[in-house]
Description:
The complex is a heterodimer of chains A (165) and B (266). Chain A has 165 residues and is α/β, with parallel strands linked by helices.
Amino acid sequence: MTTTGLHEAHIYEVLEAVKDPEIDTVSIIDLGMIERVQVNDGHIRIEVLPTFSGCPALTIIQQNIKKAVKQLEGVREVSVVFMNHPTWTSDRVTEKGRQGLKKFGIAPPPRFLTEDGSWHVDCPYCGSTYVTLENIFGPTACRSILYCKSCKNPFEAMKIISTSM
Amino acid sequence: MTNEVKPEYKKAVLTVLYQLADDDYLFSYRGSEWLGLAPHIEEDVAFSSITQDTMGHANLYYTLLEELGEGAADSLAQLRPKEERFNSLLVERPNGEGYYKDAPNYDWGYAVARNFVYTTVKKAKIDALKASSYTPLKEVAVKISTELYYHQMHWTTWFTQLCTATEESRSRMMKALQEVIKDSGDLLSLGSTAAHITAYELIESEAVIKERWLAIVTPTFEAVEIAIPVLPEPIINGRNGQHTDDLTSAIETMSEVYRSDLAASW
Lengths: 165, 266
């Protein structure tokens, strides 16, 4: 809370409208990228966790956050800082984010690694478990390529990223 | 935090960071030369994705150097001459005969052998950094390891398959592995100031990293029934700034666009 009446909640509200530049059905909040927001007399500091190290969308996200937050009344300065700690992991994707990914045709990241290190993904279109992994690596750093043998659709899935790997 | 560090400590931090950054930068560059040339399209996607991740890792290290006042991350990557580089010999070796834009005659076996050895050594080093006394480095190591998991799995799969597929593939892999190991003398080296680096607990010692590496690769070498190669003494040591002309041409090609307009904003 500050003299300008600007509150962290206002910032989060605006950040909800900042989408992944490559997946417009999920926001950066849905992806679990926002670690902390600090408001101090019109000075806003937003700590962001980068998803994949080599993701070219990161600087675009940084600019989009600045642009969006600057439009709020009472904002004097916005700093967007990328943090390496804690490390972003795929379990930070929220339930809303998981739904948003599916809507885009991307299966959400698997929740758990089983004991033998394997993981399982269902088809985002028909929900079938009868799928094959075509390529762990995909068109972007965060996605794998799969194929659904039930509805015969190729699809992508967000990779599982965990510090236990 | 960085303001509090002692000069000797800072020097040791810089040494380690340059080694790690330059290794990943060059490894990524060699990977990028393979773009469009991999044996099949899915491999092209995978290899270029790994290359992209690896450039991201180099960027994380160069950014830590920038934060320590060494200059802009991009300039550190693009503008330093070979004498100021600390990458290992293995990553500066060309992919093979020919130029990637012209008539590349690269050997996939060599690429797989180099990538397998490099990636498993990288994994050993990343694990050896997870208790680093320099917190920003420790945090970056954790970040990188989440992505490295997939790289290691990928190159181990290729290495195992080509070593066991046919007689021809096996003999070509044996030859490629020999080439790679011959150049791997400085891969585990921390350079002439290794003792300081280890004393400051920035990374575990060369001996411990080597043990870690052996533990990582032993199951694979056992599975393909190939004796675990003995890493030779370095021919030249990249950690001490010793390099071949292959590095000069790699830097020239890689930084051509960047040098064409140093004031441009990328």
